[in-house]
Design a protein that fits this description.
- The chain is an all-alpha fold and 473 residues long.
- The protein has helices at residues 2-25, 29-34, 41-52, 55-68, 74-97, 102-110, 115-145, 149-198, 201-209, 222-238, 240-247, 252-283, 293-301, 306-338, 344-364, 368-392, 398-419, 425-444, 450-460, 466-472.
- The chain crosses the membrane at residues 6-23, 44-66, 72-95, 116-145, 151-173, 180-200, 220-243, 264-284, 304-328, 349-368, 374-393, 400-421, 427-449.
- Belongs to the sodium:solute symporter (SSF) (TC 2.A.21) family.
- InterPro entries: Na/Glc_symporter_sf (IPR038377), Na/solute_symporter (IPR001734), Sodium:Solute_Symporter (IPR050277).
């Protein structure tokens, strides 16, 4: 295992080194939070792919493939569809707004201050998203060193917190590009073909499994597929972690086509994870915990050195999502909840404190898919209607948006408590309650003032000056 250790160590040191380099570039709030809004096509599409494909997409995606076969691709497939829709429909307008958070967009659209409600919901989402990838570190460190979950979470989480605190979005962007390359090689070009070949190809997998349902795209269940589409497609449309990456694009064109490229990559990654999991079921049918299938396959199928690279790829997937969610959580806390003038130093302090909090929560929780579901249920149920409504319906009002956000989030939490985290009811009932409330309250309250709408249209057209950007930050 010495060569594996060396590969992992080189990867970790590289991440920390890029954090240090990023610290030298992150000299202003804009540089720290959105990389100066200067990313071109290559860096933008790579970092967008890295942030959306994390521990739940890699460890969880393979685990779903292990349990449901090719149908396990639906979760990550829905993530790819979400990125495609966001990029094709809304990315151009999002870039032109020149804001830092989703809540600032809501304030521009509706007037007044709604950031306490929307910021609180978004903060809870980004914090739980950070936690999901932090949980997943433990599987890698257990395979490498036999370390218990708590120690693995602390080690992996500390690395991410360190480079995120140092350089902010610049460090995260640089590390994401490396992580994107590593996980593309490790997952798509190494583990995928080795897994299928080891299982005897597709014919061998069918013979070993002797279960046609494993090759049925609907095996996971129609209701689950619909829930995945609702949660992840809509969640990717409105998440702060995703919007914050859109803010980094240097132009609307980059945000659109770079995002579409990233979405297509996600669709390929979804199928790859499900096939790896299906091959794992054929080879190792008695794994008790489906989320351990990835680690078991890497440990048993790959030679030393290659194994280290694939484990580094898994770490890359987890760290990219975790760091992106962490900087998003910090940005929301500083700009929407704290709401006082901040500089680079204070943003670093927010990142540090919230990173430590995420590590603490990750030590307690276990199921990465369940944790991710909690995050997206709260996000989609609470904010989707108000955000999309603001983008497409001029009659929507601030009061309607705020009541809709509160009712949707509370409904989602209530049904998760009553019916369980993985039930379908939280997302259905919260979206329904949020939509009805938004429409009814908006129609019952005075329309948004023409002045607010005129300013909104001007910002959407990309006419905001640098001074206005700073004021709205």
């Amino acid at each position: 295992m010495a060569l594996d250790y060396a590969v992992i160590a080189a990867y970790v040191l590289g991440m920390i080194g890029m954090g240090w380099w990023g610290m030298r570039r992150a000299t202003s709030k804009s540089e720290y939070l959105v990389a100066g809004r200067r990313l071109g096509f290559g860096m933008y599409s790579g970092t967008m792919s890295a942030v959306v494909l994390g521990g739940a997409s890699t460890i969880g995606g393979v685990g779903l493939g292990y349990k449901f076969g090719i149908s396990g691709a639906w979760m990550v497939f829905a993530i790819g569809l979400g990125i495609l829709l966001l990029s094709a429909l809304f990315a151009r307008r999002i870039v032109r707004l020149k804001v830092y958070t989703v809540s600032q967009m809501l304030d521009l659209r509706y007037g007044g201050n709604s950031s306490i409600v929307s910021g609180s919901v978004m903060w809870a989402y980004t914090l739980m998203l950070t936690v999901t990838s932090t949980i997943a570190y433990s599987t890698i460190f257990n395979v490498l060193f036999g370390l218990p979950k708590t120690v693995g979470v602390i080690i992996g989480g500390s690395i991410v917190v360190l480079y995120s605190v140092l350089g902010g979005m610049w460090s995260i962007t640089l590390t994401d590009i490396v992580q994107f390359v590593i996980k593309t090689i490790g997952i798509l070009f190494l583990l995928l073909p080795v897994s299928i070949i080891s299982a005897g190809g597709f014919d061998g997998m069918r013979e070993r499994l002797d279960d046609p349902a494993m090759f049925d795209v609907g095996n996971i269940g129609v209701s689950t597929i619909i829930t995945f589409l609702l949660i992840y497609v809509f969640g990717l449309l409105i998440g702060q972690d995703i919007w914050q990456r859109v803010f980094t694009a240097k132009s609307p064109k980059v945000a659109t086509w770079g995002g579409i490229t990233s979405g297509l990559y996600c669709l390929v990654y979804a199928v790859a994870g499900a096939l790896i999991g299906t091959a794992g079921k054929a080879l190792y049918p008695d794994i008790a915990n489906k989320d351990e299938a990835f680690a078991v396959m890497v440990e048993n199928l790959l030679p030393t050195g290659v194994r280290g690279l694939v484990l580094a790829a898994a770490l890359a997937a987890m760290m990219s999502t975790s760091s992106g969610a962490l900087i998003a959580c910090s940005t929301v806390a500083a700009n929407d909840i704290w709401r006082r003038k901040t500089d680079v130093h204070s943003n670093r302090m927010f990142t540090l404190v919230l990173g430590v909090l995420a590590i603490g929560i990750a030590v307690v929780l276990n199921d990465v898919v369940a944790a991710l579901t909690v995050a997206y249920n709260i996000l989609v149920g609470g904010l989707l209607v108000a955000i999309i409504g603001g983008l497409v319906w001029k009659r929507g009002t601030r009061v309607g948006a705020m009541v809709s956000m509160a009712v949707g989030a509370l409904t989602s939490i209530t049904f998760m408590i009553v019916d369980g985290v993985l039930a379908d009811s939280p997302i259905y009932y919260s979206l329904g309650a949020s939509f009805v409330t938004y429409v009814v309250v908006s129609l019952a309250t005075p329309a948004t003032s023409p002045e607010v709408l005129a300013n909104w249209e001007r910002r959407v057209a990309g006419e905001a000056s640098d001074e206005e950007e700073l004021v709205n930050a």
